[in-house]
Amino acid sequence: MPEKHTLSQFDDDLNHISSLVMEMGGVVELQLRQAAQALVNMDLQIADLVQEREAMVNDFEVQLDHEITSVISRRQPAARDLRLLMAMSRITSNLERAGDEVHRMARMVKLILESGFQRSLPAGELHVAAEMASVLLRRSLDAFARQDAHMALSIIKEDDALDNEYNGFLRKLMTYIMEDPRTISPSINLLFLAKAIERVGDHAKNIAESTIYVVEGEDVRHTARAKLDTIVR
After folding, report:
1. What number is the average pLDDT over the span 196-223?
2. Which CATH architecture describes the domain 2-231?
3. Which of 31, 76, 138, 217 has its CA 20 to 30 A from that of 110?
4. Mean pLDDT of the chain
């Protein structure tokens, strides 16, 4: 009976940490949607809201690090349970970094507004990329919640589309700079903003890789795409 009671407490610990991870992911998702809105509308107030939420994301990271470390030291989990805890630690780190990128998006919006060239730049054309990144992040968290390795694999492959969108935007931005050299400085800020969106997609992909790690027991970081199809069965 004591052993069953201990196992029940361990399940409660895992469920609590998983809930915190999903809650943290929800905050970052909201940040990203608001940052995209600030970008499209060049809205200073919304950009400020995005930056204010960074402290909340950082607090989640500190709390989750503490909770995960505590459970590992107290429960000494093995096999899938240990993989799950390690994956949640990786996901926490990627969510915090995604939050940093979203914070950077808001900061670049504010710098572009300060430059006075917001109407001269193709900022609105990044809306598609921002939406793609938002979908990838949301689906990566959904795949983790469902422990769905096939959905995670599709997310890893879909990140290529976001990379292509980013590269296409860079070509357009170069054209704007050549047509009006006065936009060089704000264009660089827009370039950093576009890169931040692309990096959010990378973190979503990393979260998907963590899901595959839990489900399949294989660390697929830095694994060739062709080999992934043989791992996710």
Report:
1. 95
2. Up-down Bundle (1.20)
3. 138
4. 92
